[in-house]
Amino acid sequence: MFRKLDQPAADENVALLLGDHKDSTIRKIETAVQVLSLAGMPARPVHGFELEEETLSVEMVHWLEVYHQKKWWEYCPGKESSDLPESYIAWWRGTDPLYKVRGGENPQIHITAQKKEMMPNRIAQKELVSAGLLKFSLLNLPTENQGVYRMMLLIPLGALLVVIFRNFIGIKTFGTFMPVLIALAFRETQLLWGVIFFSLIVALGLVVRFYLENLKLLVVPRLSAVLVTVIIILTMLNVVSHNMGLSLGLSVSLFPIVILSMTIERMSVLWEERGADEAIRQGIGTLFVSILTYFIFANYTLEHVMLIFPELLLVLLAVMILMGRYSGFRLLELYRFRELGRDNK
Questions:
Q1: Domain span at 49
Q2: With bands split at pLDDT 50, 70 and 90, how would you rate the model's confidence at 116?
Q3: Which of 1, 38, 93, 198 has the fewest CB atoms within 10 Å, measured from its CB?
Q4: 182 or 318: which leads in pLDDT
């Protein structure tokens, strides 16, 4: 029957039943339900979406369920096989629409889906219940609070990465936690747009900061002026990105505005005291460490492990204390003073 419905031009009866909706999947399913009901076979339309690994945005799909031999059989229009793909998930059944609009026209619906592995959570909860420790676990918190701690527990990993790059490799950054805060913003804006917006904001902010230097302002009013400038730049970028259809740009407001203002101020002071090379070098170092920290924050496995085993924070604390005892050369210092080693030989 579906083969005939998929080829309405080949059958006048099918073309008559479908009318002007020959290419509508929903119309074909509704027609099949009506035909089957006349034959005494229960049938119903099913609406859902197809889960995909690499995309968050999903499209609605529709198929038919027919009750036969004490079992519901699934049929999907346009599919040669009667087996429904495993990636299909049903949302609701029946002829009711997804939404109803009153007083509006041309509504647009966007559906996003993200894969979540629930089995490890359930296993952990079962073990905690048997040990009587579930009430002391983060898994017992409301879902909203768990989402906050999923991100919060990754921040020490980002701080550990900053310690490694500053104390062992020798890459200089603006402040200790600046790369971590910027990486948090990258998590919301996505990496590419985050880097672009960060570079634009800092570059434009430096231009304004150098102009303010000529006005001989005091420190606090100057910082306040830079803060206002950053907000103006963010607003302009939001408007421009929205008009260009770049929806990712709208989340740029999550950037730590005060931190960006302090970055511009510190970079300008360093520019004046130690030259443009050192200022640009530290700016690139900050951006580089932020990008690497972003990959930690975007790792779902690390996020899940830290939520299930928050006691790993004690391990991180011990590692940081051990790192704090190190007072030797950094890798970049060994490269910098390599000529001295050659002279000693």
A1: 2-108
A2: low
A3: 38
A4: 318
